[in-house]
Design a protein that fits this description.
By secondary structure, this protein is an alpha+beta fold. 35% of the residues lie in helices and 17% in strands.
Protein backbone atom coordinates (compact mmCIF):
# COMPACT_ATOMS: atom_id res chain seq x y z
CA UNK A 1 0.00 0.00 0.00
CA UNK A 2 1.17 3.65 -0.09
CA UNK A 3 1.90 6.35 2.47
CA UNK A 4 -0.65 8.72 4.00
CA UNK A 5 0.24 12.40 4.49
CA UNK A 6 -1.56 13.97 7.46
CA UNK A 7 -1.44 17.75 8.01
CA UNK A 8 -1.63 18.62 11.73
CA UNK A 9 -2.87 22.06 12.93
CA UNK A 10 -2.00 22.62 16.62
CA UNK A 11 -3.65 25.59 18.38
CA UNK A 12 -1.45 28.14 20.11
CA UNK A 13 -2.84 28.36 23.68
CA UNK A 14 -1.14 31.72 24.36
CA UNK A 15 -3.08 33.51 21.61
CA UNK A 16 -6.35 35.25 22.34
CA UNK A 17 -7.77 34.31 18.95
CA UNK A 18 -7.40 31.06 17.10
CA UNK A 19 -3.89 30.69 15.73
CA UNK A 20 -2.31 27.45 14.62
CA UNK A 21 1.09 25.91 14.02
CA UNK A 22 1.15 23.52 11.07
CA UNK A 23 3.10 20.24 11.00
CA UNK A 24 3.13 17.28 8.64
CA UNK A 25 3.27 13.55 9.47
CA UNK A 26 3.89 10.88 6.83
CA UNK A 27 2.85 7.40 7.89
CA UNK A 28 1.89 4.18 6.21
CA UNK A 29 -1.72 3.98 5.09
CA UNK A 30 -2.29 0.91 7.28
CA UNK A 31 -0.82 2.63 10.34
CA UNK A 32 -3.15 3.03 13.34
CA UNK A 33 -4.60 6.18 14.88
CA UNK A 34 -2.55 5.42 17.99
CA UNK A 35 0.69 5.86 16.00
CA UNK A 36 -0.54 9.21 14.69
CA UNK A 37 -1.52 10.36 18.21
CA UNK A 38 1.95 9.43 19.45
CA UNK A 39 3.38 11.73 16.78
CA UNK A 40 0.99 14.52 17.84
CA UNK A 41 1.88 14.14 21.55
CA UNK A 42 5.57 14.28 20.63
CA UNK A 43 5.00 17.60 18.84
CA UNK A 44 3.08 18.96 21.86
CA UNK A 45 5.86 17.90 24.25
CA UNK A 46 8.58 19.60 22.23
CA UNK A 47 6.59 22.79 21.76
CA UNK A 48 4.68 23.30 25.06
CA UNK A 49 6.37 21.00 27.56
CA UNK A 50 5.91 17.44 28.67
CA UNK A 51 2.88 18.34 30.74
CA UNK A 52 0.93 19.05 27.56
CA UNK A 53 1.80 15.68 26.06
CA UNK A 54 -1.31 13.98 27.38
CA UNK A 55 -4.17 12.91 25.15
CA UNK A 56 -6.75 13.36 27.96
CA UNK A 57 -5.75 17.03 28.36
CA UNK A 58 -6.48 17.78 24.68
CA UNK A 59 -9.73 19.75 24.51
CA UNK A 60 -10.89 18.58 21.06
CA UNK A 61 -9.62 16.82 17.96
CA UNK A 62 -11.31 17.78 14.67
CA UNK A 63 -11.11 16.02 11.28
CA UNK A 64 -10.93 18.85 8.70
CA UNK A 65 -10.23 16.62 5.70
CA UNK A 66 -13.78 16.97 4.42
CA UNK A 67 -16.50 19.61 4.62
CA UNK A 68 -18.09 20.01 7.05
CA UNK A 69 -15.48 19.21 9.69
CA UNK A 70 -16.30 16.61 12.38
CA UNK A 71 -15.16 15.70 15.88
CA UNK A 72 -12.99 12.60 16.34
CA UNK A 73 -11.90 13.11 19.98
CA UNK A 74 -13.74 10.05 21.22
CA UNK A 75 -12.34 7.84 18.44
CA UNK A 76 -8.77 8.97 19.13
CA UNK A 77 -9.17 8.10 22.82
CA UNK A 78 -10.98 4.83 22.12
CA UNK A 79 -8.58 3.29 19.53
CA UNK A 80 -5.31 3.45 21.52
CA UNK A 81 -3.89 0.11 20.39
CA UNK A 82 -1.65 -0.37 17.37
CA UNK A 83 -3.47 -3.59 16.34
CA UNK A 84 -6.49 -5.64 17.27
CA UNK A 85 -10.11 -4.65 17.85
CA UNK A 86 -9.11 -1.44 19.69
CA UNK A 87 -7.26 -0.03 16.68
CA UNK A 88 -8.20 1.68 13.43
CA UNK A 89 -6.08 2.48 10.38
CA UNK A 90 -5.57 5.83 8.70
CA UNK A 91 -7.11 4.47 5.47
CA UNK A 92 -10.25 3.47 7.38
CA UNK A 93 -10.48 7.05 8.64
CA UNK A 94 -10.36 8.36 5.07
CA UNK A 95 -6.90 9.90 5.34
CA UNK A 96 -5.32 8.16 2.35
CA UNK A 97 -3.59 9.61 0.42
CA UNK A 98 -3.88 12.73 2.59
CA UNK A 99 -5.84 14.16 5.53
CA UNK A 100 -6.01 17.11 7.91
CA UNK A 101 -6.64 17.15 11.67
CA UNK A 102 -6.95 20.10 14.12
CA UNK A 103 -5.80 19.91 17.77
CA UNK A 104 -7.59 22.43 20.08
CA UNK A 105 -5.92 22.99 23.45
CA UNK A 106 -8.01 25.82 24.92
CA UNK A 107 -11.28 24.29 26.02
CA UNK A 108 -13.50 25.80 28.65
CA UNK A 109 -16.63 24.93 26.68
CA UNK A 110 -17.82 21.53 25.46
CA UNK A 111 -16.65 19.93 22.21
CA UNK A 112 -19.66 21.04 20.13
CA UNK A 113 -19.04 24.70 21.00
CA UNK A 114 -15.37 24.29 20.12
CA UNK A 115 -16.34 22.77 16.75
CA UNK A 116 -18.68 25.72 16.03
CA UNK A 117 -15.93 28.19 16.95
CA UNK A 118 -13.55 26.42 14.54
CA UNK A 119 -16.14 26.46 11.72
CA UNK A 120 -16.71 30.21 12.22
CA UNK A 121 -12.97 30.81 12.13
CA UNK A 122 -12.58 28.64 9.05
CA UNK A 123 -15.32 30.45 7.11
CA UNK A 124 -13.83 33.81 8.12
CA UNK A 125 -10.39 32.79 6.81
CA UNK A 126 -11.85 31.52 3.56
CA UNK A 127 -13.78 34.77 3.06
CA UNK A 128 -10.65 36.82 3.64
CA UNK A 129 -8.76 34.75 1.10
CA UNK A 130 -11.61 35.17 -1.36
CA UNK A 131 -11.68 38.93 -0.86
CA UNK A 132 -7.94 39.22 -1.34
CA UNK A 133 -8.13 37.23 -4.55
CA UNK A 134 -11.23 38.73 -6.14
CA UNK A 135 -12.59 41.77 -4.25
CA UNK A 136 -9.50 43.91 -3.73
CA UNK A 137 -10.36 47.40 -5.02
CA UNK A 138 -6.72 48.18 -5.69
CA UNK A 139 -6.26 45.28 -8.14
CA UNK A 140 -6.53 46.23 -11.79
CA UNK A 141 -8.28 42.95 -12.56
CA UNK A 142 -11.16 43.89 -10.23
CA UNK A 143 -12.00 47.16 -12.01
CA UNK A 144 -15.28 47.11 -13.96
CA UNK A 145 -15.31 48.43 -17.55
CA UNK A 146 -16.90 51.77 -18.26
CA UNK A 147 -20.37 52.05 -19.74
CA UNK A 148 -19.10 53.20 -23.13
CA UNK A 149 -17.56 49.83 -24.07
CA UNK A 150 -19.03 48.32 -27.25
CA UNK A 151 -18.64 44.59 -27.97
CA UNK A 152 -17.99 43.74 -31.60
CA UNK A 153 -17.07 40.54 -33.43
CA UNK A 154 -13.36 41.37 -33.53
CA UNK A 155 -13.16 42.48 -29.89
CA UNK A 156 -14.08 45.43 -27.70
CA UNK A 157 -13.85 49.06 -28.76
CA UNK A 158 -14.92 52.28 -27.07
CA UNK A 159 -17.80 54.36 -28.28
CA UNK A 160 -19.40 57.53 -27.09
CA UNK A 161 -22.87 55.99 -27.23
CA UNK A 162 -24.15 54.05 -24.23
CA UNK A 163 -25.53 50.70 -25.37
CA UNK A 164 -28.60 48.98 -24.04
CA UNK A 165 -28.19 45.66 -22.26
CA UNK A 166 -30.10 43.86 -25.03
CA UNK A 167 -27.63 45.18 -27.61
CA UNK A 168 -24.67 44.03 -25.53
CA UNK A 169 -26.11 40.54 -25.05
CA UNK A 170 -27.03 40.16 -28.74
CA UNK A 171 -23.46 41.00 -29.67
CA UNK A 172 -22.20 38.47 -27.12
CA UNK A 173 -24.53 35.77 -28.47
CA UNK A 174 -23.43 36.25 -32.08
CA UNK A 175 -19.72 36.79 -31.45
CA UNK A 176 -18.71 33.12 -32.01
CA UNK A 177 -21.22 31.91 -34.59
CA UNK A 178 -18.63 31.70 -37.37
CA UNK A 179 -16.07 30.01 -35.12
CA UNK A 180 -18.62 27.45 -33.98
CA UNK A 181 -19.52 26.49 -37.57
CA UNK A 182 -15.84 26.18 -38.44
CA UNK A 183 -15.18 24.06 -35.33
CA UNK A 184 -18.08 21.73 -36.13
CA UNK A 185 -16.86 21.33 -39.74
CA UNK A 186 -13.30 20.56 -38.68
CA UNK A 187 -14.54 18.14 -36.03
CA UNK A 188 -16.63 16.24 -38.57
CA UNK A 189 -13.64 16.03 -40.88
CA UNK A 190 -11.35 14.79 -38.10
CA UNK A 191 -13.78 12.18 -36.72
CA UNK A 192 -14.93 10.82 -40.06
CA UNK A 193 -12.81 7.86 -41.19
CA UNK A 194 -11.74 7.49 -44.75
CA UNK A 195 -13.34 4.40 -46.24
CA UNK A 196 -10.76 1.68 -46.59
CA UNK A 197 -10.41 0.63 -50.18
CA UNK A 198 -10.82 -3.12 -50.44
CA UNK A 199 -8.58 -4.74 -53.00
CA UNK A 200 -10.59 -6.76 -55.47
CA UNK A 201 -9.51 -10.18 -56.74
CA UNK A 202 -8.85 -8.75 -60.20
CA UNK A 203 -6.59 -6.02 -58.81
CA UNK A 204 -4.74 -8.53 -56.64
CA UNK A 205 -4.25 -10.87 -59.61
CA UNK A 206 -3.02 -7.99 -61.76
CA UNK A 207 -0.50 -6.97 -59.13
CA UNK A 208 0.85 -10.51 -58.74
CA UNK A 209 1.10 -10.88 -62.52
CA UNK A 210 3.13 -7.70 -62.72
CA UNK A 211 5.50 -8.97 -60.01
CA UNK A 212 5.95 -12.28 -61.84
CA UNK A 213 6.62 -10.45 -65.09
CA UNK A 214 9.16 -8.23 -63.37
CA UNK A 215 10.96 -11.29 -61.99
CA UNK A 216 10.95 -12.97 -65.40
CA UNK A 217 12.36 -9.88 -67.14
CA UNK A 218 15.06 -9.29 -64.57
CA UNK A 219 16.13 -12.90 -64.13
CA UNK A 220 18.80 -12.74 -66.83
CA UNK A 221 20.31 -9.71 -65.11
CA UNK A 222 20.19 -11.32 -61.67
CA UNK A 223 23.50 -12.06 -60.10
CA UNK A 224 24.50 -15.60 -59.30
CA UNK A 225 24.09 -15.16 -55.53
CA UNK A 226 20.55 -13.81 -55.89
CA UNK A 227 19.26 -16.21 -58.55
CA UNK A 228 18.04 -18.87 -56.10
CA UNK A 229 16.34 -16.22 -53.95
CA UNK A 230 14.49 -14.88 -57.01
CA UNK A 231 13.36 -18.42 -57.84
CA UNK A 232 11.95 -18.88 -54.35
CA UNK A 233 10.20 -15.51 -54.52
CA UNK A 234 8.66 -16.52 -57.85
CA UNK A 235 7.47 -19.82 -56.34
CA UNK A 236 5.83 -18.00 -53.44
CA UNK A 237 4.13 -15.54 -55.82
CA UNK A 238 2.86 -18.41 -57.96
CA UNK A 239 1.36 -20.08 -54.90
CA UNK A 240 -0.34 -16.87 -53.89
CA UNK A 241 -1.58 -16.22 -57.43
CA UNK A 242 -2.87 -19.75 -58.07
CA UNK A 243 -6.59 -20.51 -58.04
CA UNK A 244 -8.28 -23.73 -57.03
CA UNK A 245 -10.04 -25.54 -54.22
CA UNK A 246 -8.97 -23.67 -51.10
CA UNK A 247 -9.96 -26.61 -48.91
CA UNK A 248 -7.00 -28.63 -50.21
CA UNK A 249 -4.09 -28.89 -47.82
CA UNK A 250 -0.92 -27.16 -48.97
CA UNK A 251 1.07 -30.42 -49.18
CA UNK A 252 -1.66 -32.00 -51.38
CA UNK A 253 -1.65 -29.21 -53.97
CA UNK A 254 -0.02 -29.47 -57.40
CA UNK A 255 0.54 -26.08 -59.06
CA UNK A 256 0.51 -25.66 -62.83
CA UNK A 257 0.91 -22.76 -65.24
CA UNK A 258 -1.64 -23.43 -67.97
CA UNK A 259 -1.68 -22.50 -71.65
CA UNK A 260 -4.67 -23.26 -73.89
CA UNK A 261 -4.35 -23.93 -77.61
CA UNK A 262 -7.40 -24.12 -79.90
CA UNK A 263 -6.24 -26.31 -82.79
CA UNK A 264 -9.22 -26.81 -85.14
CA UNK A 265 -9.57 -27.19 -88.91
CA UNK A 266 -10.46 -24.01 -90.79
CA UNK A 267 -13.92 -25.34 -91.73
CA UNK A 268 -14.79 -26.04 -88.07
CA UNK A 269 -13.29 -22.92 -86.54
CA UNK A 270 -15.55 -19.92 -85.88
CA UNK A 271 -15.31 -16.46 -84.35
CA UNK A 272 -17.10 -17.73 -81.24
CA UNK A 273 -14.27 -20.14 -80.44
CA UNK A 274 -11.89 -18.97 -77.72
CA UNK A 275 -8.51 -17.75 -78.89
CA UNK A 276 -5.18 -19.09 -77.68
CA UNK A 277 -4.62 -17.64 -74.24
CA UNK A 278 -2.78 -18.13 -71.00
CA UNK A 279 -5.10 -19.19 -68.18
CA UNK A 280 -4.46 -18.11 -64.60
CA UNK A 281 -2.17 -20.19 -62.45
CA UNK A 282 -4.15 -23.01 -60.89
CA UNK A 283 -3.59 -25.86 -58.46
CA UNK A 284 -5.18 -29.30 -58.33
CA UNK A 285 -5.09 -32.31 -56.05
CA UNK A 286 -2.20 -34.68 -56.65
CA UNK A 287 -4.74 -37.49 -57.08
CA UNK A 288 -6.52 -35.70 -59.93
CA UNK A 289 -6.16 -37.39 -63.32
CA UNK A 290 -4.89 -35.61 -66.43
CA UNK A 291 -8.24 -36.16 -68.18
CA UNK A 292 -10.16 -34.48 -65.38
CA UNK A 293 -7.77 -31.51 -65.45
CA UNK A 294 -8.26 -31.16 -69.20
CA UNK A 295 -12.06 -31.43 -68.96
CA UNK A 296 -12.21 -28.83 -66.17
CA UNK A 297 -10.12 -26.34 -68.16
CA UNK A 298 -11.94 -26.90 -71.49
CA UNK A 299 -15.64 -27.27 -70.73
CA UNK A 300 -18.66 -27.03 -73.07
CA UNK A 301 -16.81 -28.38 -76.09
CA UNK A 302 -19.74 -30.25 -77.60
CA UNK A 303 -19.77 -33.68 -79.27
CA UNK A 304 -17.25 -32.94 -82.02
CA UNK A 305 -14.35 -31.66 -79.93
CA UNK A 306 -12.15 -32.83 -77.10
CA UNK A 307 -9.18 -31.66 -75.06
CA UNK A 308 -5.89 -33.24 -74.11
CA UNK A 309 -3.21 -32.62 -71.48
CA UNK A 310 0.18 -31.97 -73.15
CA UNK A 311 3.56 -31.89 -71.45
CA UNK A 312 7.01 -31.17 -72.76
CA UNK A 313 8.98 -34.40 -73.15
CA UNK A 314 12.54 -35.04 -74.33
CA UNK A 315 12.60 -37.98 -76.79
CA UNK A 316 15.28 -39.74 -78.81
CA UNK A 317 14.66 -38.17 -82.19
CA UNK A 318 16.90 -37.68 -85.21
CA UNK A 319 15.32 -34.26 -85.78
CA UNK A 320 17.17 -31.13 -84.83
CA UNK A 321 14.51 -30.25 -82.28
CA UNK A 322 14.69 -32.76 -79.44
CA UNK A 323 11.83 -31.37 -77.32
CA UNK A 324 8.39 -32.78 -78.16
CA UNK A 325 4.95 -32.12 -76.68
CA UNK A 326 3.08 -35.30 -75.89
CA UNK A 327 -0.20 -36.17 -74.35
CA UNK A 328 -0.41 -37.31 -70.74
CA UNK A 329 -2.72 -40.38 -70.43
CA UNK A 330 -6.13 -39.40 -69.07
CA UNK A 331 -6.10 -42.07 -66.34
CA UNK A 332 -2.68 -41.05 -65.03
CA UNK A 333 -2.73 -38.94 -61.85
CA UNK A 334 -0.54 -35.89 -61.38
CA UNK A 335 1.34 -37.63 -58.58
CA UNK A 336 2.13 -40.62 -60.79
CA UNK A 337 3.25 -38.31 -63.61
CA UNK A 338 5.57 -36.57 -61.17
CA UNK A 339 7.07 -39.87 -59.98
CA UNK A 340 7.67 -41.04 -63.56
CA UNK A 341 9.36 -37.76 -64.50
CA UNK A 342 6.70 -36.51 -66.94
CA UNK A 343 5.63 -33.54 -64.83
CA UNK A 344 6.85 -31.34 -61.99
CA UNK A 345 5.25 -28.83 -59.67
CA UNK A 346 4.96 -25.33 -61.22
CA UNK A 347 5.49 -26.71 -64.74
CA UNK A 348 3.92 -25.11 -67.81
CA UNK A 349 1.39 -27.44 -69.43
CA UNK A 350 -0.72 -27.13 -72.57
CA UNK A 351 -4.45 -27.86 -72.85
CA UNK A 352 -5.04 -28.49 -76.56
CA UNK A 353 -8.56 -28.42 -77.98
CA UNK A 354 -8.86 -30.53 -81.14
CA UNK A 355 -11.53 -31.99 -83.43
CA UNK A 356 -12.99 -35.52 -83.19
CA UNK A 357 -14.32 -35.65 -86.76
CA UNK A 358 -13.22 -38.59 -88.90
CA UNK A 359 -11.73 -36.32 -91.56
CA UNK A 360 -9.48 -34.54 -89.10
CA UNK A 361 -8.03 -37.69 -87.53
CA UNK A 362 -5.91 -38.24 -90.64
CA UNK A 363 -4.37 -34.77 -90.54
CA UNK A 364 -2.69 -32.71 -87.85
CA UNK A 365 -5.95 -31.70 -86.13
CA UNK A 366 -6.44 -35.08 -84.44
CA UNK A 367 -5.20 -36.28 -81.03
CA UNK A 368 -1.48 -36.16 -80.30
CA UNK A 369 0.91 -38.95 -79.32
CA UNK A 370 1.11 -40.23 -75.74
CA UNK A 371 4.14 -39.97 -73.48
CA UNK A 372 3.99 -43.77 -73.14
CA UNK A 373 4.67 -44.31 -76.86
CA UNK A 374 8.14 -45.46 -77.93
CA UNK A 375 10.63 -42.72 -78.78
CA UNK A 376 11.27 -44.16 -82.22
CA UNK A 377 7.67 -43.50 -83.18
CA UNK A 378 8.37 -39.80 -83.00
CA UNK A 379 10.05 -39.89 -86.41
CA UNK A 380 8.00 -38.40 -89.27
CA UNK A 381 8.03 -41.63 -91.36
CA UNK A 382 7.40 -44.07 -88.56
CA UNK A 383 4.35 -46.30 -88.33
CA UNK A 384 1.94 -44.78 -85.78
CA UNK A 385 -0.67 -47.52 -85.79
CA UNK A 386 0.50 -49.35 -82.67
CA UNK A 387 -1.81 -49.51 -79.68
CA UNK A 388 -0.61 -48.62 -76.18
CA UNK A 389 -1.68 -51.50 -73.89
CA UNK A 390 -1.17 -49.61 -70.62
CA UNK A 391 -4.08 -47.22 -71.10
CA UNK A 392 -7.76 -48.03 -70.54
CA UNK A 393 -11.06 -46.28 -71.08
CA UNK A 394 -12.49 -46.77 -67.57
CA UNK A 395 -13.70 -43.20 -67.06
CA UNK A 396 -17.13 -41.70 -67.62
CA UNK A 397 -15.85 -38.31 -68.67
CA UNK A 398 -16.64 -37.60 -72.32
CA UNK A 399 -13.40 -35.71 -72.76
CA UNK A 400 -11.37 -38.52 -71.20
CA UNK A 401 -13.06 -41.23 -73.30
CA UNK A 402 -12.56 -39.26 -76.47
CA UNK A 403 -8.90 -38.75 -75.72
CA UNK A 404 -8.41 -42.40 -74.83
CA UNK A 405 -9.47 -43.24 -78.39
CA UNK A 406 -6.73 -40.84 -79.38
CA UNK A 407 -4.30 -42.90 -77.30
CA UNK A 408 -5.15 -45.94 -79.47
CA UNK A 409 -4.75 -44.11 -82.75
CA UNK A 410 -1.65 -42.16 -81.55
CA UNK A 411 -1.54 -39.74 -84.47
CA UNK A 412 1.62 -37.67 -84.39
CA UNK A 413 1.70 -33.88 -84.06
CA UNK A 414 2.98 -32.12 -87.11
CA UNK A 415 5.99 -29.86 -86.87
CA UNK A 416 3.77 -26.88 -87.76
CA UNK A 417 1.86 -26.69 -84.50
CA UNK A 418 4.81 -28.12 -82.58
CA UNK A 419 6.60 -24.91 -83.53
CA UNK A 420 3.49 -22.95 -82.54
CA UNK A 421 3.52 -24.49 -79.06
CA UNK A 422 7.26 -23.93 -78.77
CA UNK A 423 6.90 -20.23 -79.56
CA UNK A 424 4.18 -19.89 -76.89
CA UNK A 425 6.10 -21.63 -74.12
CA UNK A 426 9.70 -20.74 -74.93
CA UNK A 427 9.65 -17.34 -73.23
CA UNK A 428 7.97 -18.71 -70.10
CA UNK A 429 10.34 -21.68 -69.98
CA UNK A 430 13.34 -19.40 -70.06
CA UNK A 431 11.93 -17.24 -67.27
CA UNK A 432 11.07 -20.21 -65.06
CA UNK A 433 14.34 -22.17 -65.48
CA UNK A 434 16.40 -22.49 -62.34
CA UNK A 435 20.08 -21.48 -62.63
CA UNK A 436 22.38 -24.49 -63.01
CA UNK A 437 25.25 -22.82 -61.24
CA UNK A 438 26.18 -24.27 -57.89
CA UNK A 439 26.33 -22.02 -54.91
CA UNK A 440 29.08 -22.24 -52.42
CA UNK A 441 28.05 -23.96 -49.22
CA UNK A 442 29.55 -21.22 -47.07
CA UNK A 443 27.57 -18.44 -48.79
CA UNK A 444 24.37 -20.50 -48.38
CA UNK A 445 24.98 -20.80 -44.64
CA UNK A 446 25.73 -17.09 -44.31
CA UNK A 447 22.53 -16.25 -46.16
CA UNK A 448 20.48 -18.52 -43.87
CA UNK A 449 22.06 -16.94 -40.80
CA UNK A 450 21.20 -13.43 -42.04
CA UNK A 451 17.61 -14.45 -42.77
CA UNK A 452 17.20 -16.01 -39.33
CA UNK A 453 18.68 -12.97 -37.57
CA UNK A 454 16.34 -10.52 -39.33
CA UNK A 455 13.19 -12.67 -39.18
CA UNK A 456 10.36 -11.69 -36.83
CA UNK A 457 7.79 -13.96 -35.22
CA UNK A 458 6.87 -15.94 -32.12
CA UNK A 459 10.12 -16.42 -30.18
CA UNK A 460 8.61 -19.28 -28.17
CA UNK A 461 8.61 -21.56 -31.25
CA UNK A 462 11.58 -23.92 -31.28
CA UNK A 463 14.25 -23.38 -33.91
CA UNK A 464 13.60 -26.79 -35.47
CA UNK A 465 9.88 -26.04 -35.89
CA UNK A 466 10.29 -22.60 -37.51
CA UNK A 467 9.55 -21.90 -41.17
CA UNK A 468 11.07 -18.70 -42.58
CA UNK A 469 9.15 -16.80 -45.25
CA UNK A 470 10.17 -13.70 -47.17
Amino acid sequence: MGDATVYILIEDPSSCDMRFHEDVAVLSADASIAELMETVLGLLGRRYGSSSADLDKVAAIIDASYSPARLITSQARQFRDNSGPSSRTLQAMGWFPSGKIVILLRGKNNEDDLLNDFLVWQSKVLQEEHDVAYNNPGRSESKHPAGNVQWVGAGASTSGQTLKPSQIFSAVEARADGDQVADETSQRRSTSKRPRKKQSDAERAKRLDSLLKHLAEGKSKTKKKNAAVSGKVRTMLLKSRSEGNKKLRMEDRFHLEILRLVDLPPDEASDADPVNETSPYQFFSKQTTAGRVASSLASNLGDKRSAEFLVKANVNSTLAEEARYRRLPNTMTLQEAEKRGFLQDFDIILIRIYSLSAASEADRFGPSKSVLDADSEDEPDADDSSVVPTESNGTAEKVEAATLDGDSSSSSLSSEWQQQITSMIESIDEASEEPNRKKKKVSKQVQNMLIKSKAKGDKSVKQANRVFLG
